[in-house]
Structures are given as C-alpha cells and as structure tokens.
Design goal:
29% helix; globular; alpha/beta
C-alpha cells in the first residue's frame, strides 16, 4: 500500500482522490482553522500539523508520496503576479525542504496554470538539485465532466535513480461522469457539526452527459447565507477536484505494477 503525507491539505480534495485508489493518508498539514475542522471530520485518526514551517523529518513520518497544493496567491492571474518568490507562494521553499527531508518515491504538486510562467522553472530547478525528475500537465475540471473550467497544473516528480519504462501522466485523457451522488457528496463535505452551516440548496446546471444534474458550484448563488459562507467558498475555491487526483493516483498505481515496485 502506498502511504502519503498531505501538505497544504485544505479540505482534503487531493487526499480524497488518492484514497479512492487505495492509498492511505499518514499525516496532514494545514494552517486554516476552518479547513482543519473539515479534515478532523473526515480523517479523525490521521495526525495533523498546523504550520508547514514547523514540520520536517523530526515530526513527519516517512511516506511513499508527498502531495500538496502550495499557495497560489502570488502566482495566480487574479493576484499581484509577483510569482513564486512572493510572501505566500514562497512557501514552496518549505515544500521543497520537506521533500529533501523525507525523500519520498513520489511528489505530487498542484497549483494554478499560471505557474507555467511564474515559477515552474524554480520548482523544476529545486527538484533537479535533489535529483528528482518531473513531468507536468494542466488539467481542467471540464475534462472530468464538471460544468466549469478550473485549470490547474499537476506535477509528478520522482528520484532520477528510479528508471521508469514510461511517464506517469502519459497522453491518455482522464474521464469522469458527474452524477447526483457526486453532487451530494460535495455538499456534505463542508457540513461540519462544530459550526453547523446548514443545508445547501441545489443549484441546477447545464445538461451534462445527456441529462440535467444538480451541481455544487463555488459561487454564492445556491449557497445559504450563514456565518461560515465566506470560509466555505474560500475553502472550495482552494480545493483540488478529487477526481483529477484520483486519476493521477490510478496512473501512479499502474507505474507501481509496471516497474515492479
């Protein structure tokens, strides 16, 4: 079984996707209080740490894979675009430090597509300096059947010493069909007993796969006005689309078989 650690875990979108393919979460690091409550609900037995700056080989268990979406605020087109050396996106340096500390067999990094022009060179250089090869690809939520674009860059890295028969991400297209049950799970995910945000109204979206399905969108329309609505929207806005992480996890599992790990 592949065990993974989650940095900048948010509400666990990446973790959920990886668990769906049989991986096991060993620990999570997340500084946002609201997100930690969501993580505590869904992963009550997984050790949690608040600050990535206070984590390393001395308190994080070695794992096969480290995943995380480091802050995008300085990289995103919606921000000031100062790049990966900005105050928040600069936390990539902590991600890199922890990779150096634990030396996992896989690293899975997520960020906005603008990383291609505002920091990918730095990420690749840092990984190469510790002898990790990398491959990357931009995914859109609509590739998975969701009614919004949400382009995100996903990067897979692994030690140069591990010669692989083929790339992990390859050229095949991921696929996923939106269902009513998927929408229900999305709505239930942010419902935490501690602050009881209340029921979320269904928002009806466009025709998908031949029929109209209820969709849960990161917009105010369709969400109740509760004291936690802003935190809910922010948490969703920062979250990874789980089916994309699931598809990438499937490709990693295929690599394990192909390379005899």
């Amino acid at each position: 079984m592949i065990r993974f650690g989650s940095l900048f875990a948010g509400i666990g979108g990446m973790d959920l996707g990886l668990e769906r393919v049989g991986m096991q979460c060993a620990w999570q690091v997340e500084i946002d209080e609201f997100c930690r409550k969501v993580l505590a609900k869904h992963w009550p037995d997984v050790p949690k740490f608040n600050d990535v700056k206070e984590c390393g080989r001395y308190n994080l268990e070695p794992v096969d894979l480290i995943c995380g979406g480091f802050p995008c605020q300085d990289i995103s087109n919606a921000g000031k675009r100062v790049g990966i050396d900005g105050e928040r996106s600069g936390l990539w340096s902590e991600f890199h430090r922890i990779i150096c500390d634990l030396r996992p067999r896989y690293v899975l990094v997520e960020n906005v597509a603008a990383l291609l022009v505002r920091g990918l060179d730095r990420v690749l250089s840092d990984l190469a300096s510790i002898r990790y090869d990398a491959e990357w690809r931009v995914f859109s939520a609509c590739e998975m059947g969701f009614p919004h674009s949400r382009e995100r860059l996903f990067l897979i890295a692994y030690p140069t010493s591990e010669r692989r028969k083929e790339t992990v991400l390859g050229n095949s297209a991921p696929s996923f069909s939106w269902t009513s049950e998927t929408g229900k799970r999305s709505k239930d995910w942010l419902s935490i007993e501690v602050e009881a945000p209340g029921p979320v109204a269904e928002t009806w979206g466009p025709e998908i796969h031949g029929k109209v399905e209820p969709v849960f969108l990161c917009v105010v329309n369709g969400l109740p006005r509760t004291v936690d609505i802003d935190r809910q929207i922010r948490a969703l806005g920062n979250a990874v689309v789980p089916p994309i992480a699931e598809w990438i996890g499937q490709q990693i599992m295929k690599q394990e078989v192909s390379n005899g790990f």
